Amino acid sequence: MAEKKTQERKVVADNRRARFDFEIGEVFEAGIALSGTEVKSLRSGRATVAESYVSAKTGEAIIYNTFIPEYLQANRFNHEPRRPRKLLLHKRQIAKIWQAVEREGMTVVPLRIYFNEQGRAKVEIAIARGRKAHDKREALKAKDWARDKQRLMRDRG
Q1: Please, how many CA atoms are within 13 Å of residue 144, restricted to the half-sphere of its CB?
Q2: 100-110 core/surface letters (b: 16 or more CB in 10 A; e: else)
Q3: Angle at the Cα of 25 (from 20 to 28), degrees rounded to 5?
Q4: Closest Cα to residue 112, out of 70, 55, 63, 69?
Q5: Contacts of 58 (CB under 8 A, 6+ apart)
Q6: How far apart are CA 74 and CA 97, in angstroms?
Q7: What are φ and ψ of residue 93, in 5° steps?
Q8: Residue 118 CB partners (closer than 8 Å, separation 6+)
Q9: CA distance 56 to 75
Q10: In tens digits, what is the pLDDT along the chain, a chain of 157 residues?
């Protein structure tokens, strides 16, 4: 049989700060309901998810404060850059997210926006717990030590 070609995901926006500020728990892949000009603007790769968040209160998941700039070639049919956008998840996944937020005091943060192999825009969201300042320092120390350890092993061997 012929092997399938595996394309890399095209990451449009990455929330690197979330991995520092939160302890990442379970990760979900969600579709996102976009208009035509939003998709074209995403393909140019200029979106931001750094200060966005997800809410699942009304039985549907909605992402707020995600910045997708206006598409320059569109005229009057352009979209609003920071409008709330619906996330496409299964009911069980939404219920699981809602229970974690309500009971355990967790929060839902978007990690990245990307295009999958079929060319559809997806959002990777995670249930996360906020870190305290001392936890952040410990995480930095562990990360630095792992990097130094890699350097030592590479130099020795």
Answers
A1: 6
A2: bbeeeebbbbb
A3: 110
A4: 63
A5: none
A6: 36
A7: -65, -40
A8: none
A9: 33
A10: 556 555 567 899 999 999 888 999 999 999 999 988 899 999 988 899 999 999 988 889 999 999 999 988 887 888 899 999 999 999 999 999 999 999 888 999 999 999 999 999 999 999 999 888 888 888 889 989 999 999 999 988 7
pLDDT of residue 156: 85
- The angle at the Cα of 142, spanning 140 to 144, to the nearest 5 degrees, equals 65
CB atoms within 10 A of CB 2: 4
Instruction: Find out whether 100 and 106 touch, Cβ atoms under 8 Å.
Output: yes
- Computed from CA positions of residues 60, 65, 66, 72, in that sequence, does the dihedral angle turn out positive or negative? positive
* Cβ atoms of residues 106 and 53 within 8 Å: no
Tell me how far apart the terminal alpha carbons of the chain are, to the nearest angstrom.
41
Tokens (6 digits) for 25: 């728990």
pTM over 0.85: no
User: How many residues appear in the chain?
Assistant: 157
Evaluate the CA torsion angle 81, 82, 83, 88 in order and state its sign. positive
Residue 132 exposed, middle or buried by CB count within 10 Å (0-12, 13-18, 19+): exposed
